[in-house]
Amino acid sequence: MIYLGVDGGGTKTAFVLINDAGDVLARHEAATSYYLSVGMDAARSVVLNGIGEICHRAGITPADISFTFLGLPAYGEVSADVERLDAIAQSLLNRERYRCDNDMICGWAASLGCRDGINVVSGTGSIAYGEYQGRSARCGGWGELFSDEGSAYWIGCQALNLFSRMADGRLQKDLFYDLMREKYPCRNDLDICDLVFNQWKGDRGKIASLAPIACEAAVAGDKQSRAIFFLAAKELALMVDTLRETLRWHADESVRVSYSGGVFKCGDVILEAFAYELAKLNGNYHICLPEYHPTLGAAIYAAKLNGTPLSGQALGKLSLGEYNGQ
């Protein structure tokens, strides 16, 4: 059997084909499928072209795919759009052999191997999703305008605020200011407004791309930049703790927690703060390293939805290290 996983995101869409033996048959990356940003037609084109391309790479046709899971950003957040999103791949795939849902499930399935626990995603946006004893729930992920706390976009906005305060003297200039001037040389500090508003047009992905600069400054000792990551960690931990209560774990029961998304690539500057904030809320959280790549999570979940979950041996072959090393 062959399973296709599609992991949509705010900046890119990743496709992976696996078989029931745990072999990765093909991979492909394309532009974002965040339809609220690029439009439904563009998102549909990304999905359909991506399916066609990955099948070509694997030497199969869409009809050869046993089941597909498509994790789409913002799925379920606009009720009127769900029916159209559910139909997004029907011109290539049998409607009975694929399922669409929010891309948060890809991170959960990958990080926790489809087992009970909570996964928090901090990429371009942020969201937390958990399952426990057949119950499921999400927290956060209400969009970048008034939510997505702790995400790369949110960190980017905080970083721009930090730059403005350093530039006009409300805060003492530190490494982050220097890194921004080095990365985006301009005649005047106020030209950052031209960059963000006119050149970038407030683009979500471009603002999110400032997070690694803030991370670099934080790691090098910039206290104001580091404070941004502490606040991000506090917001992400609150999402997890809210889900623990929503899904009705007992207060003294151990809860497996994992994570995914580009912000966590900042390493200890976010992970140590996240662990600290979780421990303050409840002492029974057990933070687990992600077991698989998020895209593999989509394919693993496809096998589960098909009623043919992968064997332990197959899952063993789909280790995070093997996937990244191919």
From TrEMBL:
In this protein, which residues make up the domain named ATPase BadF/BadG/BcrA/BcrD type?
A: 4-302
The superkingdom listed in its UniProt entry is Bacteria
* Molecular function GO terms recorded: N-acetylglucosamine kinase activity
- CDD domains linked to this entry: ASKHA_NBD_eukNAGK-like (cd24007)
Q: What is this protein called?
A: BadF/BadG/BcrA/BcrD ATPase family
**Can you name the source organism?**
Serratia ficaria
Lineage of source species: Bacteria, Pseudomonadati, Pseudomonadota, Gammaproteobacteria, Enterobacterales
